[in-house]
Every structure is written in C-alpha cells, then in structure tokens.
Amino acid sequence: MPAAARWFRVIALVEAVSWTALLVAMFLKWVLHVQTPHEGGVPVVGPVHGVGFVVYLLSVLWVALTLKWPLKTTAIGLAAGVPPFGTVVFERHVQRRGLLSRRTSRTTAAAAQG
Fold it and tell me: Which long-range contacts (CB under 8 A, 24 or more apart) does 69-74 make?
C-alpha cells in the first residue's frame, strides 16, 4: 500500500475522532449548558477538528493524485469530510473496492477510460 493510502486511512480515522469530540463538546455546551471557561471544550476541540478537516481534504487530494482516482471518487471523498463519520465510511468503501492499492487503482482507472 502506498504511503499516501496509509496516511489517508489514518487521517480519515483521526478526522472522525475529532468530529466525535466536537459533537460531545457541543452537546456539553448547548444541551447541558456547561458554564466553565472552556464552554464544554468547544474552543479547544473546534480548531482541532478544523485542522483535521483541512488535513483530510488534502489527504484525499494526495491519494487521488497518487493513485489516479476518477474525478467522481475524488469528489465523493472530499464531500465525505462534511457529515460526521463520513470519512470512515468513505475510507472503508475505497478499501473494499481496492482503490487504496496502486495496482488496482491503475487497473480501475484504465477500465474507466475504455
């Protein structure tokens, strides 16, 4: 498995964990009305998740260019960063389809071209 694919898998998981942490922090702030100076952790977790989101988007572009993903797959991968846990669902999808291995992605790209 190429380095880009390995990093993509890790980053997809990290982004999903940061989403979870942000959802918990927002629950503490907005539902339980935690009145600490940290507002349930949102001021800390929010920027961490923001950085994780941007790094995820960059990792999708990196692996898409490295493994020559079709444009549709790349667009779905980028969109998967928006809903909570979409990164993990997408990562598992491309793993099952063999799009994270160099040999299979070239074969898939060649088949898509004709």
Answer: 69/94, 69/99, 69/105, 69/109, 70/108, 70/109, 70/112, 73/99
- Listed as own residue / partner, the contacts of 96-99 with beta carbons closer than 8 Å and 24 or more positions apart are 99/67, 99/69, 99/73
Predicted structure pTM score: 0.84
Q: What average pLDDT does the structure give for the chain?
A: 88
CA 66 centroid distance within chain: 17
Helix intervals (H) in 68-101? 71-79, 86-96
pLDDT above 80 (res 70) = yes
Evaluate whether 87 touches 81 at the Cβ level (below 8 Å).
yes
Contact in structure between 63 and 100 (CB atoms under 8 Å): yes
C-alpha span between 49 and 96 (Å, rounded): 26
Tokens of 41: 């952790």
Mean pLDDT of 8-29: 94
